[in-house]
Specification:
By secondary structure, the protein is α+β, with helices and mostly antiparallel strands. The chain contains two helices and two strands; from the N terminus they run ββαα.
Length: about 70
């Protein structure tokens, strides 16, 4: 059984209703929660990678070279 929605369609000078398949126009709260948890997990992993010794040293080197560049 499919869910139907009614939408108004302008026909001439008036409006008529038509039934069509229901579309999902957004996500529900549970999907927001899962998406938020996934984003937080990814941010934690990215933070650990960025603050690790080799990566932090490479970033400092790149920033130092950029600041010491002659224009």
């Amino acid at each position: 059984m499919s869910r139907l929605r009614r939408s108004r369609v302008r026909v001439g000078s008036g409006f008529r209703f038509r039934a069509g398949p229901r579309t999902d126009s957004g996500i529900v709260s549970a999907e927001y929660a899962v998406g938020t948890l996934a984003a937080c997990g990814f941010a934690a992993v990215l933070y650990k990678v960025i603050t690790s010794g080799p990566v932090a040293g490479a970033l400092e080197s790149v920033i130092g070279n950029a600041l010491d560049a002659k224009f």
